[in-house]
Design brief:
It is a single chain. By secondary structure, the protein is an alpha+beta fold. The protein has one domain: 2-Layer Sandwich (Alpha-Beta Plaits). Helix content is 17%, strand content 36%. The N terminus is likely disordered.
Length: 225
């Protein structure tokens, strides 16, 4: 989805919080280990859960951490294999049942290092895409997003990294300050590159400064494959 060049877009801010979060590091193959803060991809997913329209494209530029970074270790039930999309399509064409996954036979218990008691402010903007219609404009989507945030409405329930960790959201409180902390977060997952088949991974060097992570724009040299 390509955004049209119609200025810098409209900026928004939304308060997001929850009991637990897990923004999984891709280098961890078996046990889940969370990044210290949300990835830009996870933040974008939260915004799209509140308001998704083909006419707009979300771009996150700042993630503000409101609470100290705290950790918890939990054990989660997962399955050890993945369903086959090829077999599922074949079954759909033939009108038969595809071989699925039996949870009782494939269940595995794994440890996860997750974040607890989290709260963030996501600062982002949306741009109009080439799929916008004649009646679509920036003010329309800005008002729509603000109404949904104020009423707690969403396209689908947003989550903090994994679906079992539901996210609460609302307007940014008046008394809202980020944590006074700075740390090097290392290479962090940025987003998928859909210009390739299959989509490739993109990363950037993330830093926490005064409780804020500045996210570079998609085409900047800071974003690497």
């Amino acid at each position: 989805m390509n955004a049209l060049d119609r200025g810098s877009g409209y900026g928004i801010s939304v308060h997001v919080w929850g009991e637990y979060a897990c923004f999984t590091r891709p280098e961890m193959k078996v046990e889940r280990v969370s990044y210290d803060v949300p990835t830009p991809s996870a933040a974008r997913g939260i915004l799209e859960s509140i308001l998704w329209k083909p006419a707009i494209e979300w771009r996150v530029h700042t993630i503000e951490v409101l609470k100290p970074i705290r950790w918890a270790t939990i054990r989660r039930n997962e399955v050890g294999s993945q369903g086959s999309w090829t077999l599922a399509k074949q079954a759909m064409r033939q009108g038969t049942l595809a071989d699925g996954i039996t949870v009782e036979d494939d269940r595995q218990q794994r440890a996860a290092l997750v974040l607890r008691d989290v709260a963030y402010v996501i600062h982002a903007q949306f741009l109009i895409t080439e799929r916008a219609g004649m009646a679509d404009n920036e003010g329309k989507f800005l008002d729509m997003f603000r109404r949904r945030v104020a009423k707690g409405q969403c396209y689908r329930r947003p989550y903090l990294g994994t679906r079992e960790f539901a996210a609460h959201f609302g307007p940014v409180p008046e008394q809202c300050e980020g944590i006074s902390e700075a740390r090097d977060l290392g290479w962090m997952f940025y987003d998928f590159d859909y210009s390739t088949t299959p989509p490739g991974d993109r990363f950037f060097r993330a830093e926490l400064r005064d409780g804020r992570v500045e996210v570079p724009p998609p085409g900047s040299p800071e974003v690497r494959r």
